[in-house]
Please model this.
Amino acid sequence: MKKLRNLAVVGLLTLSLTGFAGGEKTCEDRIKNKDILTTEQISMRVTHCENLKPKREAFRATLTDEQKAIRKNSSISKRERKVQLAATLTSEQKTMKSEIRSIAKSQREEFRATLTDEQRKQLRERRQARKSTK
Model:
């Protein structure tokens, strides 16, 4: 009986720790304001995220050790990291980055076209409330 109880405790601890460790968030987990969006809009966001994932991973795969070190350097601001990284990018990396940016922009525009006036109002109010608490 005691062994069974210990085994159950170890099993529960293992499950809870793997759940908290989590690792990488899925596209579904990254979506905010799910209570305002329709199921079609949520699925659109997930699809957009999943379409960009391979391109972003391919870009990250081209980074040198120096560039990876710049990205991980938390002693400087996010803006400064961006500037330093941009200075080290090759022309191929810049092309990949601009392609990712243009795809993301077109996806944002496509998504915004699906928002109703009421949804826009709710999102705007939520954004303003978040700004006022900072």
